[in-house]
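Possible regression after last week's pipeline update?

I re-ran a chain I had predicted before the update to compare outputs. Posting the input and the new output here so someone can diff against the archived version. Not blocking, just want to make sure nothing changed silently.
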Amino acid sequence: MINDKLTVVGKGAPAIMIDGRLSQYTDMSQVLRDMSAADIEKIELITNPGARYDASGGAIINIILKRNANLGTNGNINLNGAMGLYNKPTAHTDRNFYRHGEGISINHRQGRLNLFAGYNFLHRNQYDYNEFDRLISPSRFFQTNYAPNYVNSHTYRAGADYYADNKNTFGIMIRGFARNGLSEAQNNTLQSDAATNGPVSTFETFNNTQSQRINTSANVNWKHSFDTLGRALNADIDYSAFTLNNKSDIINRLSNGTKYPNQQIIDNPVRLLVFKADYVLPVGKDAKLETGVKSGMATINNYLSFTQNGILDNNRSTDFKYTENINAAYASFQHQFNKWDLQGGLRAEQTIASGKTQGQLVVDRNYWQLFPSVFVSRKLNKQLSGILQYSRRVNRPSYQQQNPFIEYLDSLTYTRGNPLLKPETADQYKFSLAYEGQPLFSVSYNKKHDVIFDNAPNQDGNRTYTTPENLAAYENVAIELNFPIQFGKKITGYGGNQAIYNHYKASYLGAVYDRDKWNWLLYWQVAYKPKPSWSFEVSGYYTTQLLNEFIIIGDMGSLNFAAQKFLWDKKGRLSLNFSDILFGQRTRGSLIYQAINVQFREWEDSRNIRLTFNYSFGNEKLKAARTRQTASDEETQRVKVK
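New output (post-update):
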């Protein structure tokens, strides 16, 4: 986790599933921080997904939560509260930050009908703190940015599965969220002479942003089992509607008290309609063929208005309309014999995209891409297996990255979208050894083309801005060694480390950026269970200095502690989590390229303590609702709602 973003080495941010379902609108990093190892049955890491999975994205992480094997008419209530722990002057904040959440889920089955529903509420206030030291000759600008903010979030889901007969199951699900927030950022800037360090001027920027995020999604699905041997057909239809609104009141105040008020309003509705079907055909006892099709349509309207002193600024206001249609078909074959497991597949995807700014066509694309995948595994002995993998993947830009908006963070910093972004493609190779089914050793090589730099830097006079750009070729090598940790029967866990090589080569701002760097990553998780009802856990990570695009990021790490107690015959569970005990998850970095010279450091309230209570109630003798991955999971992931 770098700068509070979960990444897989060489593959960027992974698609994260919980029980087989993606939840892109959820703060996944926060969900992971809330979990104790005792809550998780297992974690599946698919580093080279096969043809069945959408070609978009890199690795896939599927978190399988523990659940009662004989669920019935039952439910679960959860309560949690947390507070940040830090020295206020050192952490550059003037207040305490806390959060609390409440939720309930229920599942009921009677005869052929299974009903399920859930609701969660979260209130969270937190803060971000940033320092930037920019050298823009002949001046130097030192900025501090303090942004306390809060979020109220409501999430829900409800649905039904109807088991019509032994061969047909029909399902329907509605899910969504409503989230509103407020950020009150204050930026202080000191301009000085770069040669003498003498002060030139000071000014402040106040940016109060109200945000609203609403999503409603509906899914209808059908599963038909032709026989008891595994031949089956699955079909899904998904519709999702997102409403994303921001209203920012930005006031620039000079040292003499003069104020310059500005206002920025963003309206960004997103609509997704997706259909997919998957067919599985067993071939004998040891082989199977999988085929499928998928078609998705996205419609995104983006409107931004910027007013300065109450007057609309047409140069900073824009209207961008974008439509995208992605069609896909795949086939894969798996065969197991003797000590071998062979899998191969091919996925073909067509992309049709159109984008207009102020009525003028700026994006017009229609192209096909092929994505092969190969997986070969052989058992070397009873415990050890060798695995060789290859896959080709694509990382499509998020819908918001393609918005040509200029969004101001303060008077000297802004971000701008890029409607001309192309998808980046990656060839991923990996050799690994597994011991008793667990990863032991691996060497991977990844090469990306048309790499999307999320924050390609540039100068606009005294202003610094970033924009996503297709800039570079990127190479990554990762050597990984994992090991189990066990002392007797009560202390278990794992540890691991990786040697990671990153190399970027790009032509940008009239020069060639060619830089590479190795870094070392160490991670561990150890659990102690003195009694069946008690467990304690220590986990953490540490990484040395690393290269991320144009930025050198300093070393960082995190040390975490968790304790858990089961109550009332394991119907209740009380857990205490202490995250980032040493407050080491703070980012320090530098960006030096051409005329750009920026040093920065930033952090948030990562050091906190959380208390969580869960209680399961009701009958525990009925099967749970099906776990399904819906048709629009990949499209939904491209909608950034943070």
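Follow-up from reviewer: compared with the archived run. The chain has a mean pLDDT of 85. Marking as no regression found.
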